[in-house]
Amino acid sequence: MQNPIQLLSNSFKNASLRTKLLGLASASCITGVILCCIGFVWNDLYTLRKAKASQVEAQAQMLAFNSPAVITFMQQEAGEQLLIAFQSQPTVESAALYSMEGDIIACYPKGTLSTSFPDIQALTPGTQFTKDGRLLHTEPVVESSEQVGFLFVQSNLKDVNRQIQNYLVIAGQVIAISILTAMLIALWLQRMISGPITNLAQTAQHITEQEDFTVRVQLEQEDELGTLYRSFNQMLDKIEQSQNELSDANDTLEERVHERTAQLEDQIAEREKTQQQLLTAKEQAEAANRSKSQFLANMSHEIRTPMNAILGFTDLLRRNADGGDEAERKEYLDTIHTSGQHLLTLINDILDLSKIEAGRMEVELIEQSPHQIIAEAISVMRVPAIQKGLTLEYNWASGVPATILTDASRLRQLLINLIGNAIKFTNEGGVRVTVELVRQDQRHMLKVDVLDSGIGIAYDKQEAIFAPFGQADSTVTRKYGGTGLGLTISRRIAGALGGNLTVSSDPGVGSVFTIMIDAGPLENVPVYDCPPVADVVTFSSDHAYSRNVQLKEMKVLLAEDGETNRRLVSLMLNRHGVIVTPAENGQIAVNLAASQDFDVILMDMQMPVMDGYTAASLLRKKGLNIPIVALTAHAMKGDEERCREAGCSDYLTKPIDEDRLITKLAEFLPQPEQINSHQQKSQLRRVVTSSLPYDDADYREIIDDFLKELDVRIEQMQACLKSADFDTLERLAHWLKGTGGTAGFDQFTFPASRLHRVAEAGDIVEVVVALDDIKSIADSISQYVH
Q1: Which single residue of 335, 381, 516, 578 could bond 573 by disulfide (Cβ 3.0 to 4.6 Å)?
Q2: Angle at the Cα of 473 (from 469 to 479), degrees rounded to 5?
């Protein structure tokens, strides 16, 4: 059986809209009025009770003020006369004066029994209302800041209750009037709401029964009902329109079939176009796969060719196939060495390209002399040009800026790549490098043209040669070799330097590769009419020098975990008189360095137990100051800095080249404090010759140019010594170290390296000694030439 609330809810749910509106309006109004009346009555009750309490409290305070003497002297009659003042308050039922001992001194009304009053322990100062509708107030009686008793007052709340009753009567009347008013308003509103809804329902029923969609409802209102009427009419409009369209569709079905057929034909054409695009993409992917296969074939050839030479000639040496012929044995070794260098160059190219493709190629833009960088590249490539019988020229077509903002190593690599390419594909004539400072897009740009008289490039291949692994055609690959990486790397380097690399070429006539790089801001940078002499610095090899160096009794600690590498490096060093102590890891190296004396430590950076970085750092913390040279297979940017931060003095990359290793160790040779002057002169006054063939006109020109420049540079060195200009002296020593080797005078390499080192340290005594050595060698060259 349902409870009354459920019955009422179901009845209200099924009631008419008119009944629901009346009920909702009445309920809302009645609820609001009742809540308001309750609020007002409650507020009045609170206010009246508070006023009553204030009234009783005020009179009690006044009487308590006059009561100290009554309580002190126990004057009952005076106390009763004082309390008789409560007669002005009809609601006060009783009052009493208490001493601090709890005795009742006087009562109101007079003659009231003391038992009708509470004990003194039950009295609480202040006002409180009891549950039976009374007000109790206790007021302390104080004399000279000392409490002597209490005044207790008890009052009823009849006057407050009468006022509350009056308020309730008024509230009932207000509620009745509000209900009547709400009913009247609800009746008026329901006609405005339920009437249109009823009309809409009747119209919908008519449309459903008669299927007459031409009927419309009318209601001129802007409220939700008006929106409902308009939406209903719009629905009827759409239904009517759909019926009309359906009728028209039946009439035009054939026409629509033709249109749909045309659409399908268009879709088929689009699909065929997509299929053609997919076929093109497939062909491109297959072409890329063929390019990859071609690259792998080229790489296989490029790697296998030197590997075949290395393994073949090594096997011949193992079998003593040279028959003891030293010249033939040297030829075998030179072939092995050249093949190994070719492999290393190939690996470096692949690593450069992988770094570029991964977006990890970094450039360090600092102020550099452009003439020095270009001169260095020309110097490096002059020997291969002469070996092919080609000329290699270099000139500026504009003023020469003292410095530009660029990465010297990357720009030098770019130039060497392009000049080497030009020499490679040129059989007659020569290569010319033209440099010019130009303005482009509000920037200073360095423009370098590398012109050759070589085989040229077909017009349709001039852009393809810059793609990775791309060359002009397969015949070029077969004839000239190469992997097709050089130009790709070069263009990426040019882009990283803020420019680009382009080419123009006529097949059979020659090519012009144009480099454009950002020169950076040139405000306050001097621009010379011709290149400054002090900038001409070149690179060379130290091979001939290293073969003659003897590092007798130099003690070297070799920390290397690979047994083969330990044997190889030990063999290299033993040939030059070095005493080698091997260590298999960093921990052993640290222990040996702590217990023995060494001149230099060669430290592999990747070792088990303790790596080279940790070992070098630990040795420096222990106070060891001898040179530590890092040996590492890592050749990425930042590896050298990491080694130096760990405490290494210098840095060599693997594979270890004997000439570079010996040259590096020679820089750390201990210098004798005294040398017999006669012995020194006899050693230096020897005949000094160039390793280049002087009877060859082209080589003779290189030697003569060097000797002319040498005299000028020695004079500059002496001037720098007098003015203590060690910075310029360092640059001049660096020039001599490189250029002397290029001209075949390797005898300058060691004293020039020494001069560079002592000039950097500012040791003027050692500078004088090193400069005297250089002058003595120069004098011996002059005697030889003349």
Answers
A1: 578
A2: 95
Count of CB atoms situated within 10 Å of the CB of 470: 17
* Pair type for strands 391-396 and 430-440: parallel
pTM above 0.85, yes or no: no
Residue 341 tokens, joined? 């260098």
Do 86 and 162 meet the contact criterion of CB atoms below 8 Å apart? no
- In the chain, the N- to C-terminal Cα span, in Å, equals 138
Residue 703 near residue 690 (C-beta atoms within 8 A): yes
Q: What are phi and psi of 150, to 5 degrees?
A: -135, 155
The tokens for 780 are 């011996």
Distances (CA, A) of 610 to 404, 591, 646, 712: 44, 12, 13, 51
Buried b (16+ CB within 10 A) or exposed e, 629-664: bbbbeeeeeebbebbeebbbbbbbbbebbbbebbbb
| DSSP state, residue 360 | -
pLDDT given for residue 163 in this prediction: 85
Q: DSSP of 86-150, one letter per residue? A: GGG-TTEEEEEEEETTS-EEEEESTT--GGGS--GGG--SEEEE-TTSEEEEEEEEEETTEEEEE
The C-alpha atoms of residue 735 and residue 747 are separated, in whole angstroms, by 14
Give the pLDDT score at 785.
47
Contacts of 540-544 with CB under 8 Å at 24 or more apart are 540/379, 540/737, 540/738, 540/739, 540/740, 540/741, 540/742, 541/659, 541/741, 542/659, 542/660, 542/663, 542/741, 542/746, 542/749, 543/659, 543/746, 544/691, 544/741, 544/744, 544/746
Q: Give the bridge partners for 449, in sequence order.
A: 434, 514
Q: Could you give the angle at the alpha carbon of 23 between the alpha carbons of 18 and 26, nearest 5°?
A: 125
Give the pLDDT confidence of 436-482 residue by residue, as tens digits. Answer: 999 988 899 999 999 999 888 887 776 777 766 555 455 554 445 55
Q: Exposed, middle or buried, 322 (CB in 10 Å: 0-12/13-18/19+)?
A: middle
Distance CA 526, CA 152 (A): 110
Residue with tokens 């033993």: 574
**Cα angle at 447 between 442 and 452, to 5 degrees?**
155
Q: CB 31: neighbour CB atoms within 10 A? A: 10
605: nearest Cα among 564, 657, 644, 662: 644
Neighbouring-strand partners of residue 368: 404
Tokens at residue 184, please?
């009247």
Residues 6+ apart with CB under 8 A from 154: 92, 93, 94, 95, 134, 135, 136, 137
SS3 583: strand
Q: In angstroms, rounded to a whole number, what is the distance separating the alpha carbons of residues 27 and 29?
A: 6
**Angstrom distance (rounded) from CA 597 to CA 612:** 19
pLDDT digits (tens, 9 = 90+) for 627-646: 999 988 655 556 777 888 89
Edge-to-edge strand order for the sheet containing 92-99? Answer: 104-108, 92-99, 146-156, 134-143, 126-129
Long-range contacts of 55-60 (CB under 8 A, 24+ apart): 55/89, 56/89, 56/92, 56/127, 56/135, 56/137, 56/153, 56/155, 57/127, 57/137, 57/139, 59/85, 59/86, 59/88, 59/89, 59/153, 60/137, 60/139, 60/151, 60/153
Query: Helix (H) and strand (E) counts for the chain?
Result: 23, 19
Share above pLDDT 70 across residues of the chain, in percent, rounded to a whole number: 78
